[in-house]
Amino acid sequence: MKEFDVIVIGAGPAGLLAAGRAAELGAKVLILEKMRQEGRKLLITGKGRCNITNDAAIGEFVKHVFPNGKFLRGAFSKFFSKDIIELLRQHGVESTLERGGRYFPTSNKSADVLKGLLKWLSKLKVEIRCGHRVEKILVEDGVIKGLRANGQDFFAESVILATGGKSYAATGSNGEGYELAKQLGHSIEHPRPALVPLETKGSVAQKLQGLNLKNVKAVVWINDKKAGEDFGEMIFTHFGLSGPIILTLSRIVVDALQQKFKVEITIDLKPALDEPKLDKRLLRDLNEHGKKNINNIFRSWLPASLVPVFIELLELDPEKECHQVSSNERKQIRNLLKNFRFEISHNRSFKEAIITAGGISTKEISSKTMESKLVKGLYFAGEVIDVDAETGGYNLQIAYSTGWLAGNSSVKEKGE
Ligand SMILES: Cc1cc2nc3c(=O)[nH]c(=O)nc-3n(C[C@H](O)[C@H](O)[C@H](O)COP(=O)(O)OP(=O)(O)OC[C@H]3O[C@@H](n4cnc5c(N)ncnc54)[C@H](O)[C@@H]3O)c2cc1C
Q1: DSSP sequence for 289-334
Q2: Which residues line ligand 1 (CB under 6 A)?
């Protein structure tokens, strides 16, 4: 007994796109969402502004995706950034291109993005039932039969699993999708928090809580070897380090911490000056202000809240006059400005991770269709798959593109 052509599990951006595309092709589509409301995570994206997508070309885009951006080329070639921008425009959501190729809704409201997508689905008569938690996917002889939600069976020829990852579980994505896929024999690459803040040893970062640094370079050292770097903005918090460049670097940090490696991050506060140039500048300033005490001169080199911390770390007397600074002390100042070092003790948990790394192995999913290679009629979309990306609108685009392709294949494949 068939009730629906396609049933989508999860009403996040991946599920909404999957459902819409399948319905556009004439399928009778049902979305089951366990929360009381659709798109809970979408609503909090971009601090409530929703960085919809990024305008990078596919070749550049896939460089921001891990562990294997190539897996997404097929999906991106069918439905990409210009397509979501156009789809939203057709449903009343205008977008604005900002710095770094980031698109945001012109209204700056993520709720408008969700509204636009729901308007599209409503026109296509997609049925959405919230408060329905899928407990089991029903399969017979390797072929999809339907699923069970809230103790009730629903039947369909295609099921699309779009349950998201494990981060910000309060939005609904708590990793249940991995269990549903595991029950059907799928392998799960170990889920880890990604784009996540980092905790530091000692109390230096905590003393600087709230300090935001722009135009700095952060370098990750794993077992004393340079493992990555990024340039831009970061912030000190009550537990350690956060902000865009720290989140980007967190991916390699989390993996290294899990392997119990020693992880350090150094911050270069003067990335525009190499060591000899910085030394010249320090020497000039110290000579020019020989009678001033070093407390004053540090203020011209650093944000005010960093000054006492630096003077303490360097074990300098703040009343010392500039002309009394020895060349060895100058070398230590230079070294600290270029290598402000923090040992990383932990990453923060899934609760604070923007995204989940790991998930359903891409080896068992067709990149051409998003169909499972193990179960006929089962498709995957979005963060539940083992792909994740940097910040910049990339992650939502992965959700739309894989969702669209899964929806497209779930209907088209049937006749082929
Ligand atoms: C704070 C924050 C800010 C972010 N900002 C951005 C940004 O600006 N730009 C960007 O590109 N990305 C951003 N992201 C990432 C982006 O939100 C995700 O990549 C995206 O939401 C993934 O979409 P999805 O549809 O795969 O999963 P989700 O959005 O997580 O949706 C999955 C849905 O499935 C439902 N579900 C789960 N299990 C079941 C079940 N058993 N039965 C029924 N339903 C179920 C869940 O309730 C949920 O509604 C942000 C993430 C966070 C946490």
Answers
A1: TTTSBHHHHHHHHS-TTHHHHHHHHTT--TT-BGGG--HHHHHHHH
A2: 9-15, 32-35, 40-42, 44-46, 50-51, 133-134, 162-164, 167-168, 172-173, 176-177, 354-355, 382-383, 393-396, 399
